[in-house]
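Structure request: Squalene-associated FAD-dependent desaturase, Actinomycetospora cinnamomea.
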Amino acid sequence: MTFVGTFVGTFVGTPGGTPVGTSVVVLGGGLAGLAAALRCADAGHEVTLVERRARLGGLAGSFRRGDATVDTGQHVFLRCCTAYRGLLDRLGVAGSVTLQDRLDVTVLRPDARPARLRRDRLPAPWHLGRALLRYDPLSWRDRLALPRAAAALRRLDPADVAVDARSFGDWLRDHGQGPAAVRALWDLIGTPTLNARADDASLALAATVFRLGLLSDAGAADIGWAAVPLGALHDTAARRALEDAGVRVRLGTTVLDVGADRRVTVAGRDRRRDVLHADAVVCALPAEVAASVLPAPLGPRLAASADALGASPIVDVHLVWDRPVLPVPFAAGLDTEVQWVFDRSAAHGALPEGAQYLVVSLSAADAYLPVGATALVERFRAELARLLPGAREARLLDGFVTREPRATFRPAPGTAARRPVARTALPGLALAGAWTDTGWPATMEGAVRSGEAAAAVVSHHRDRAEVAA
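Returned structure:
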């Protein structure tokens, strides 16, 4: 797999050696597009960003529901997510997120006291030793088998094709990790990060997550989250930063076609067409959308890649209670359908006095997609009542469901070969998106890294052309 530094490829100038790369059109206003647009603008390009929605942020944004603000999905980041944290700094909103001073996760269980995973202030890998020894959802035998598996995981090379071809679940079983350990630890962390359970996930992507997050640096897995609606970060603040950088933002504009000559045909909400002429294009659209607008042979190849990658859904169940029922900012669930639950009261914006707004986040949520909203609300109201004593007496004031059927690609074994790099065979055209070959699963960090990689391709394209001229 390829990280940011190896994306930079070689381009040639246009016929006649005319300098190129001074005007850039970025397609898509999600995190990948935002990162690419800002990097290109900071490099001195004239940038236009095109987004079909009326807002920026993509799958990490917000929308209004009555008087409330609702995030399109529950997102967290880790201290090791340096690219995403750098974007927050660039947007001027680092103070609008909360980052733990050390990893601390409450694990809720029905009919049992909550367990806790809290790291010590020791160097890796000793920082988790005491937490795992005290983690009573695992038997002593399972706890004592963890160090051997962790040591073997540290030795893996995620760039190895053979590692990517193997499932994480198979590897765990071969390294002494039984069903209880997989359920209570590896899937507890891996499912929301990979958007797949261990048996369905590439060992390479899982190794990236656990090596970087838990085994590389003591503070790497400290969890961060937005203290405000995601739209305040990735839309409001992003628009301000783009404007300050001189980027022209065109919202409510759909990309219809991208020519091999970098002519981009778009249409506004009035369906009136326009053609944007660009020296370089960064396509930061979802894989299936990119495949439909990019020229041959690239478009058809991306269509095959998108089909092979597939999609994994995320479903969020939103519950507003008449009183506080969750005493911590977030918690994981074990031996329950509740995977993770978050207190998003501060971001709601219209809560009755004393109420609490919780979001249950369900990753790898294929089984929940066909279930009706009313049934899901009742199902998870009851599940939380099993986990939280306060919820048994509390009254549910509101409940609704948000679904993202194509939240991420499926991180299955063999995925690496299906993810395209930023550089394409068409001069001046680069790809971005969490689905491209970032070396990370489809996360906010991966999306930002992809945008930065595409911007590097664009700048390299310009530099080579200017030398040719």
